[in-house]
Amino acid sequence: MKKFIPIALGLALCACGGTRVVDLNDQKEVAAMQDVMELEYRDWTKTAETMTQSMLKSGAFRAVKNPVIAMGPIVNDTQQRFDTDILTKKIRTTLMKSGTVQVATNFSGEDTTTEKMRSMRANAEYDQETIAKTGTLVAPNMSLSGKMLQRNLKLDSGWFSSVDTRVEYYLQLTLTDLKTGLSVWEDEQPIIKEGTHAPTW
């Protein structure tokens, strides 16, 4: 009987672990997600929504006829490794769904198919009537660029307190009119967290 105890114990330990899928459509479940010092789903969602609404309400797009955005560099200057597309994709999607602006994906090298298709103009294997003619690409008239910053501050923790660090994240975005080179909208959105195990270099 004793030889079965280690096996049962091992199975019990395995049962305690595992992976749970979080239903992101369930607001209650998302709110119950464990708070972390790193940037996570709720941070991206809330920040993207706040920045997008700020941009739309600013009136910057109304000053430009048929606004077309090219994505400029969004620099990750935090102590975490992540692709800033996590954030900008949400902003772009909301902007396009609003029907206010379009995005020039070929201009910033996101979509290489547009350029590749045009290189087929001299290829006899392709029906030239199906190849886009010259002068059909739409140039962007606005660009969106920015930076994500991080600042760690040591807190004077109490004797019984485990909180010892405040992490301040700042998303800074700038919308530029490419005709004039002037900024037509800028905003900064902070994300403040306090706890232990702050991301460091």
Give a description of the structure.
The protein is an alpha/beta fold and 201 residues long. β1, α4 (85-97) and β2 (102-103) form a beta-alpha-beta unit. A five-stranded mixed β-sheet has the order 2-1-3-4-5, covered by helices on one side. The chain is elongated, with a radius of gyration of 24 Å. The model has no long low-confidence stretch (mean pLDDT 82). It has helices at residues 4-16, 27-31, 41-57, 85-97, 113-118; strands at 68-77, 102-103, 142-154, 165-177, 182-195. It is built from five helices and five strands; from the N terminus they run αααβαβαβββ.
Report helical residue fraction: 25-40%
Number of strands: 5
Unreliable residue runs: none
Question: Which shape, going by the Cα principal axes?
Answer: elongated
Q: Main sheet: which strands, in order across?
A: 2-1-3-4-5
Oligomer: single chain
H/E element sequence? HHHEHEHEEE
Binned strand content: 25-35%
Radius of gyration: 24 Å
Largest sheet: 5 strands, mixed
Task: State the separation between the terminal residues, measured CA to CA.
Answer: 52 Å
- Helix count? 5
